Amino acid sequence: MIGTSLQGLRIVLVEPSHPGNIGAAARAMKVMGLRHLVLINPRFFPDPEATALASGAEDILDTARVCADLDTALQGCHKVYGTSARDRRIQWPSSNAREAAGEILADLGNGDCALLFGRERTGLTNAELDRCQVLVHIPTAEEYHSLNLGQAVQVLAYELHIAARTTPPQPAAPPEEQPAPVEDMEGFYGHLQHVLRRSGFLQDLRATRMMRRLRRLFDRARPSRNEVNILRGILTEIERWAAKVDRKDQDSL
């Protein structure tokens, strides 16, 4: 039952450099009922050290997906959570590990979700966190808060396991109301940025910050696929109107 409630969750490790951490993550996942491991550009994989640290969870390693980029790893997900231990100047919506586990369980009712873990030394970049709807942190002692990658996966896997045991199944939204997958949203954001740049609204010095704010706005709205198509249709009409204006201006010269 627990495995069923968590089956739509992908544990995504971004560019892990130590194969032992991959094995430890696989072991932590299997113990807590998680099955889907995704690796983005692992430095060493497959590797004997990963197999040794998996210690009985070799099946998780055998079925792990290896992806070249974040787009491929997230395809088909409708919500993405990103882990971070650092204080960021840029503010993302955030939850602690226990809160996030409950939120993920609720979100899984509407389709696949992803939980991202960053590089051992530097974590996730700001650009990668821009792809996340929620930032997840693990509360630790003030004087020392260093967790390695395998330990971080273990803590989140445990919280997810407990949430799956104690959270009643969440009803899914009707298909037409389910949030659009991340690839649809990324296509929309690229289209929106293009139109805003062409209009002159986005200037280079503030483009990144403004697009981040717009992402947060639409993340809160959680538009459906049909609603995203409507928004892109509006942008397309704006582009057509702008092209007509440009032609008239050229003709008047």
Automatic annotation (TrEMBL):
It is found in: Cytoplasm. It comes from the Bacteria. It catalyses: cytidine(32) in tRNA + S-adenosyl-L-methionine = 2'-O-methylcytidine(32) in tRNA + S-adenosyl-L-homocysteine + H(+); uridine(32) in tRNA + S-adenosyl-L-methionine = 2'-O-methyluridine(32) in tRNA + S-adenosyl-L-homocysteine + H(+). Its EC number is 2.1.1.200. SUPFAM superfamilies: alpha/beta knot (SSF75217). Residues 9-158 form the tRNA/rRNA methyltransferase SpoU type domain. GO terms for molecular function: RNA binding; tRNA (cytidine(32)-2'-O)-methyltransferase activity; tRNA (cytidine(32)/uridine(32)-2'-O)-methyltransferase activity. Transmembrane segments: none annotated. GO terms for biological process: tRNA nucleoside ribose methylation. Belongs to the class IV-like SAM-binding methyltransferase superfamily. RNA methyltransferase TrmH family. Catalyzes the formation of 2'O-methylated cytidine (Cm32) or 2'O-methylated uridine (Um32) at position 32 in tRNA. Homodimer. This is tRNA (cytidine/uridine-2'-O-)-methyltransferase TrmJ. It comes from Acidithiobacillus ferrooxidans (Thiobacillus ferrooxidans). The gene is trmJ.
